[in-house]
Amino acid sequence: MSPVETKVAPARVAVIGTGLIGTSIALALRGRGTEVLLADRDPAAVRLAADAGAGTPLYGRPHEPREPSEPLESFEPADLAILAVPPGAVPAALLEAQKRGVARVYTDVASVKERPMAEAVRLGCDMTTYVGGHPMGGRERSGPLAAQADLFLGRPWVLCPTRDTGEEAVGAATALILACGATPVVMDAADHDRAVALISHTPHVVSAAMAARFAGAPGGVLALTGQGARDVTRIAAGDPELWLAILCANARPIADLLEEVARDLVTAAAGLREGEAEGAVADLLARGVAGHGRIPGKHGGRPRRYTAVPVLVADRPGELALLFQAAGVAGINIEDVAIEHSPGRSVGLVELWVRPESAQDLARELRARGWSVPVGEAD
Ligand SMILES: NC(=O)C1=CN([C@@H]2O[C@H](COP(=O)(O)OP(=O)(O)OC[C@H]3O[C@@H](n4cnc5c(N)ncnc54)[C@H](O)[C@@H]3O)[C@@H](O)[C@H]2O)C=CC1
Ligand SMILES: O=C(O)C(=O)Cc1ccc(O)cc1
Which of 49, 140, 209, 275 has the most neighbouring CB atoms within 10 Å? Predict the structure, then answer.
């Protein structure tokens, strides 16, 4: 039996901040029968989340106190409150929620841990009922409309308890993580911040630096964009306000890494300019292959090779569904999928990533059903 089946999801949860992450958590919890109460400083965000089936509004009931410092009237505290607000807003939101007695214990989801936790201590928050958290799953869109119940499936979710953290907070946060289908990982806050500087925050800036080159490029040039450039720049589309807050709250380790990246780039540029690419540039490319090869595969396991089966599909409704259905009928699990649109053409190239031993069978099955499967790795 998996741990997801053995742990009971929290019965009653408050989500404060109903944007992408808060609403995604709320949807995942609703799917497991948890009662979810929603709050956001923006009433429209609460309405959209509630309309999407993420829960019911926490505030706005008759006779509600106007001052956040006043406790909620006739309110049974939730088992857990999740602060899903930007990193800089976590300490004040925690203090306010604790003063109002919103929940018995609290966690947050901010992408940076050390600075908000220190500020919470400084503000006088009760750190025994709080544990810092960070789900390592997300996307480059914001707001409740971008939320997905499966956003955290199979992803690590970091918890940063301190010496002050009580057992109830860690227990409730762990139950939340398992209810969202994620895997809890306990880390020290400073170690967490250094880790995410490397695997999330610096990549974001590097992605933005590349995407910024496209801002003034002619449309005709960008129409040639393939999957590689899309992969490198996807995260650059993230909300600049949120990302500025994240970067400023974890400034030093990110700045150190950016300087390392910049040194590599300057050396590569000099090598290319001086016709000596075999040296520094070849070395950078080789280190890139080595580094990329160390990224673990799906579900955090060891890197595993899948084979891509390329298929040309017509750009019309239902075509992808037929493709997936054909794979399902053949009993082949699709591990991943990538879609490349051909500009100005009514066809697209879909790559179905499957286990190597299934690739030939899938190619044969799809060809038999009339799809064009270019000869490739699968043959
Ligand atoms: N975007 C991503 O992929 C990930 C984000 N995170 C973290 O999750 C948190 C939320 O990010 P998103 O959901 O992406 O942002 P978002 O912009 O979609 O949602 C944030 C919500 O918080 C609300 N808010 C801001 N200050 C508030 C306050 N003081 N009280 C109540 N509500 C307040 C905003 O109105 C907004 O609805 C951030 O701390 C971020 O670092 C963590 C993992 C992934
Ligand atoms: O879009 C992606 O691939 C991400 O990695 C999203 C993400 C953004 C911020 C985080 O703190 C964690 C995850």
Answer: 49
